[in-house]
């Protein structure tokens, strides 16, 4: 038996830590076969477990998501919690992100086999389990957020599920549309040259998407579409 497989099996058999805090930006890149971690999820049927591990190995992902402090956004609706994650030498049953800055985020690929889903972060290859949010639960969560905003102080006023972006010279409408589609959105050109509005799906977080797109090399800026006069100056 290889050393890597032995380590994976010993990790799977070890009692998990009930809860761990993911320290943003402090995790080393994971190397090796991430499919072994999926195969350790003994609560899944063997066939489903093997199929999901195969999808991870072959990079046949279903969505590109953004993991932020308070949620996970993508083309579908996901619960905010992360489970069964390997943090260093610890196998964590639940992973919290309460220490993350509000604008911190990690991009990840999402793989599903039936309702069993995992995310793999693109930078450090961290793997964790996530759950799809049922439609009725999503509506309830959005209603609760509207009635009890998480931010302190006066409520910000911006168009919901919309982000304004500025394209760099030479970027076509089709290319902007492809950038928007990664987040499940659709782009439309506005009056100022090179300025687009990206309309996001109901389950998306405009804050998380704006924070992600503001770092895109082909965009000059990305910001919320404030109902007051938007600031269209580049970041």
Main-sheet strand order equals 3-2-6-7-8
> Taking all residues together, what is the mean pLDDT?
80
Name the shape in a single word.
elongated
What structural class is derived from the secondary structure elements?
A: alpha+beta
Count all strands and give the number: 12
Number of domains: 2
Give a quick precis of the structure.
The protein has 2 domains: 3-135, no CATH class; 157-226, Alpha-Beta Plaits.
Task: Summarize the structure in words.
The chain is α+β, with helices and mostly antiparallel strands. The chain has 2 domains: 3-135, no CATH class; 157-226, 2-Layer Sandwich (Alpha-Beta Plaits), CATH 3.30.70. It is 25% helix and 31% strand. The chain is built from 6 helices and 12 strands. The strands form 3 sheets. A 5-stranded antiparallel beta sheet has the order 3-2-6-7-8. The chain has a 4-stranded antiparallel beta sheet with strand order 10-11-9-12. A hairpin with a 5-residue loop joins β10 (186-189) and β11. Residues 1-13, 150-156 and 228-235 have low confidence and may be disordered.
